[in-house]
Write a structure and sequence with these properties.
- The protein is an alpha/beta fold and 203 residues long.
- It has a single domain, classed as Rossmann fold (3-Layer(aba) Sandwich).
- It is 26% helix and 33% strand.
- The chain contains six helices and 14 strands.
- It has helices at residues 12-21, 32-35, 49-59, 61-70, 80-84, 190-202, and strands spanning 2-5, 26-29, 40-43, 74-78, 86-89, 95-96, 101-107, 121-126, 128-129, 144-149, 151-154, 160-165, 169-176, 179-182.
- It has an eight-stranded mixed sheet with strand order 2-1-3-4-14-13-12-9, sandwiched between helices.
- The chain is globular, with a radius of gyration of 16 Å.
C-alpha cells in the first residue's frame, strides 16, 4: 500500500487511479500519525504554495513528512508537492517549505522568454535527462509529459535528474537520496506517466 498524503490540494483520486492502473494499491492519509505505517508516500497537489504549507503546518503533517523522509523511505513530490520539498517559495510573498532539499521556488522569468511564451506553462513538454534516477527507468531522453505550473525550483545541479526547456531550462525531475520530485503530472501523461508511477513502486 502506498500512502497518498491528503492535504486538500488537488484531485487526489486521479493519482490513486493511476497507481491502481500499474497494479498497486494506494490509500489517502490525513492523520500524521498514520503516515509512518507505509513504506512509500506520494505528496501530490496543485494550487498555491502558501496555502499548502499552512495546511501541512496546522495539521502536523509537515513534521510527519519530515520524519518519513528521514527514515529513509521513498517519498515522491509531484507538481506542487515537488515544490514543497524545498526550503522556500517566493510565490505571493515568501513562504517556508519542508526544507528536505536545498533550493527555492521562483516564478518563471518572463524577461528570458520568447514573445510567444506565456505563464503558466501548460501542456506537453519534454525532459532532457541529466543524471540517472530510478524514477526515469525506461524513460527516454526527450520524452514528453504534461505540465501545469507558473513557478519552478532553483537548486544545485547535483539534485537535478532532468530539465525541461520553457524559455530556458528549469529542473523538472529532482532527487536527493530517498526523496524524489517530479514537476509534470504523471497521471495526465498517459503511458509514460504510468511508467513513472511504476518505477516509484519498484524503488
Amino acid at each position: 500500500m502506498i500512502a497518498i498524503i491528503d492535504y486538500s490540494m488537488g484531485n487526489l483520486q486521479s493519482v490513486i487511479n493511476a497507481i491502481e492502473k500499474v497494479g498497486k494499491k494506494a490509500v489517502l492519509v490525513k492523520e500524521p500519525k498514520e503516515l509512518g505505517k507505509y513504506q512509500k508516500a506520494i505528496l501530490p497537489g496543485v494550487g498555491a504554495f502558501g496555502d499548502a504549507m499552512k495546511f501541512l503546518n496546522q495539521s502536523g503533517m509537515n513534521e510527519a513528512v519530515k520524519e518519513f523522509a528521514s527514515s529513509g523511505k521513498a517519498l515522491l513530490g509531484i507538481c506542487l508537492g515537488m515544490q514543497l520539498l524545498f526550503e522556500k517559495s517566493l510565490e505571493f510573498g515568501e513562504h517556508k517549505g519542508l526544507g528536505l532539499i536545498e533550493g527555492e521556488v521562483v516564478m518563471f522569468d518572463k524577461n528570458r522568454f520568447d514573445n510567444h511564451l506565456k505563464v503558466p506553462h501548460v501542456g506537453w513538454n519534454s525532459l532532457k535527462i541529466r543524471q540517472e534516477n530510478p524514477l526515469l527507468k525506461e524513460i527516454k531522453d526527450g520524452t514528453y509529459l504534461y505540465f501545469v505550473h507558473s513557478f519552478h525550483v532553483k537548486t544545485d545541479d547535483k539534485y537535478v535528474s532532468a530539465v525541461t526547456h520553457y524559455g530556458y531550462d528549469f529542473p523538472s525531475v529532482v532527487k536527493k537520496n530517498n526523496i524524489f520530485g517530479f514537476q509534470p503530472h504523471p497521471e495526465k501523461s498517459h503511458e509514460n506517466g504510468l511508467k513513472i508511477y511504476k518505477n516509484f513502486m519498484e524503488i
